[in-house]
Every structure is written in structure tokens, then in C-alpha cells.
């Protein structure tokens, strides 16, 4: 474990917590893409499927973190699609998730480390995570704005994989560890946040709200 | 046993 991966995971936990708090406190999921949250839940379930296959005692933090990610993302989907369904902005959350799931699944079958079920599920989860934020960014471009709290969520969510890139550089240099598929997907994922990062740094940090040119 | 968890990250 290195500092980059530690802060990456903390940033990821923060993102999940910020979103949960926003929905729970405001009792509304306006401005939140339910599709992105569904895709993240699918990512966690397919990536941590080993939790279900052979139950390992929860003594180590990694297992606990995996369970937190899965339960928090499923609970977030429950809040969006059931509890606060009335506030779900279905009209603007209109990016076709199939256009992300099918290519990710196809690519996972073509480009993977080992052609076996668990490995393909892991690869699918990595590819899907890289593009899972697109419905959320699409929704913001449709509504033309993002609530400040949602911007903080996106910043934390984007920073998590950006920090992982630093972690991979660190591990390559000191442990000569390379996981090419995760690195390539992680770079793509972080690039998708670039224009948001620019808006966040130039606007939200100064207390302004992100309003996209309609 | 079995699972040589190559991917040791979350």
C-alpha cells in the first residue's frame, strides 16, 4: 500500500459518502444520473465477485472495503430508483447505458489477461468503470448545470482514479508491478474528467456554480 | 487455494 493508493481509496469512499449524504439530506436525487450509479454497482459486483464465491473472514480491511463499496452503491441505487424515485430526472438521464455495457463486455472477451470467468468479469468491470461516469457527465451537459455538492462528488470520484495512476507509477518504479489493462482504462477514465476538472478548479473552488453554456 | 488474486487493488 502506498500513499497514492491510500488517498485514492479515501477519495473514492468520500465520493460515495458525499453522494449518499446529498441524496439523503436533500431527500432528492436531482442532478444525479441513476444510470451511472447502476453502472458503478455492476462494476463493484463483477469486480468483487470473489466475496460471494468463497467467503473469506472479514478480518482484513480490503474485504470490508469491498463490502462497503457494494452495499453503498446498491443502497444509492435503491434511494434513486425507489425511495426518492419522484425526484429522479429520468428525462435528462437519457444516455443509453447499453452503449457502454455491450462494448465493455465485448472488449473484455477480446482483451484480457486470462480467458476465464473471474478474470473476464474483472476486466469487464475495469472497462465499464472507465466509462461509467459518462451518463452523469451527459446529464450535466443536458441540464446545463451541476449542484455544488454534486460537483464535489464528481471531483472526489475523478480524483480517486487519478491518484491510482500515481499509485501505478509508484508501483512500476518501486515494485516493477504493472497491470496494463487497469492502467490504460484508468487513464481513459481520468481523461474523461479533464474538462470537468477544469470547470471545477476555475469555478467551484471560487464559490461559483458550474453552469455549462446552454 | 486456486485464486492467485493477481489483481491486488480495489
Automatic annotation (TrEMBL), chain A:
Primary location group: membrane
GO molecular function list: ER retention sequence binding
Subcellular location: Cytoplasmic vesicle, COPI-coated vesicle membrane; Endoplasmic reticulum membrane
Record flagged with keyword Transmembrane: yes
InterPro entries reported in the protein's UniProt record: ER_ret_rcpt
Transmembrane segments: 36-55, 67-84, 96-115, 121-140, 182-201
Pfam hit, one: ER_lumen_recept
Domain of life: Eukaryota
GO biological process: protein retention in ER lumen; protein transport; vesicle-mediated transport
GO CC annotation terms, alphabetical: COPI-coated vesicle membrane; endoplasmic reticulum membrane
Membrane disposition: Multi-pass membrane protein
Stated family: Belongs to the ERD2 family.
Name listed for the protein in its UniProt record: ER lumen protein-retaining receptor
